[in-house]
Amino acid sequence: MPQLAPVNWLLLFFLFWFAVGITSTLIWWSSKTEYKIQGMSSPKNSSVSGAEPKSWNW
């Protein structure tokens, strides 16, 4: 295994956890059905006045 300077190990450490964090955030965000973009096949609601804003369900 090649020797790396401590700065390189820190860079790899932070880069790894940054990638893990971004990936897990994207997976978590895409699992929330109420925030998914509606597809072309879904019916569109033209009246905005009756729509209620959705709250964050943490």
TrEMBL record:
The chain crosses the membrane at residues 6-29. The keyword Membrane applies. Keywords: Membrane, Mitochondrion, Transmembrane, Transmembrane helix. Residues 38-58 are annotated as: Disordered. Residues 39-49 have a biased composition (Polar residues). This is ATP synthase F0 subunit 8.
